[in-house]
Amino acid sequence: MAKLTVGEGINFCFAKLLLEHGCNCVLADLALRPEAKALVEKYSTSDPRAIFQPTDVTDWVQLEKLFEVAAGQFGEIDIVCPGAGVYEPRSSSFWYPPGSNESRDSPTGSRYAQLDINLIHPIRTTQLAIAKFANSKTPKSIIHISSIAGQVASLSTPLYVAAKHALSGFVRSLAKLDKIGIRVTAVAPGYIKTPLWTESADKMAMVDESKDGWVTPEEVATVMLALIQEDHISESILGQPTDGDEVIPVKGGTILEVSKSVRKVSMFDDPGPLGRPGNSMGDQRAAEEGFLALVQSGSWGEAVAN
């Protein structure tokens, strides 16, 4: 069994868990963080085995190369997780428009890097995976990383929210691939203690760790493994007691919210994620007021002269 993922945060924990369960893994990223590099080195000559394939996920040619390398190294591919993501960085953010000092998006480039990473890359990777899976006789899985941001609105992170809403709709739209043995699912985590947060002073300023609760990458990876292996998942899979401890059927199109417990996200009339442990993270009002003031500054949206 071979699995494609990227090498940071949730994906690192997922790859580690799969290796522990005997699955060969290809980690793809621009570069590996120290913990992912150590993981690849640990499994470089073992069975199962891990390899690293340098990949810019916004480059479709490099995505195709990733599949070629995985198939060449391990034969048939069974699991694909297009999990690379960024969380509204200033370099590609709605509030720091193309051409501004903070943005790396070009005002003549006709695209946002954030959407290329968070939405376009998962869509293209899914197409490539389906092409490989279409005539297989064994079950296949494509697992996406959505977010509780796919259920809510946030003035602070509108592009991220838009991408996660779209990704959740994309996953649901592919539900019937289950009929031909390709299960497309997603996790929708709450606030995860990963470098996306911890290495951003802007985001950590919103966090009161004495009151707010993190969801760990290990907890999300545990649910991802269950989405691949199981046909039913308990709400209390992470050890948190729940009222009634519902058993959730797993099939194509399933999206599971991962806070300190697990619940299925419904397409219609969903109660939403707020109020559940792990889904609350500080007070965003100061950040929102800052963005409103930025828009009223008189120069917002204007490209900086070269």
TrEMBL record:
Gene3D superfamilies: NAD(P)-binding Rossmann-like Domain. Keywords: NADP, Oxidoreductase. The keyword Ribosomal protein does not apply. One of its GO terms (molecular function) is oxidoreductase activity, acting on the CH-OH group of donors, NAD or NADP as acceptor. GO terms for cellular component: cytoplasm. It comes from the Eukaryota. SUPFAM superfamilies: NAD(P)-binding Rossmann-fold domains. Belongs to the short-chain dehydrogenases/reductases (SDR) family. PANTHER family: 15-HYDROXYPROSTAGLANDIN DEHYDROGENASE [NAD(+)]. This is NAD-dependent 15-hydroxyprostaglandin dehydrogenase. It comes from Uncinocarpus reesii (strain UAMH 1704). The lineage of its organism: Eukaryota, Fungi, Dikarya, Ascomycota, Pezizomycotina.
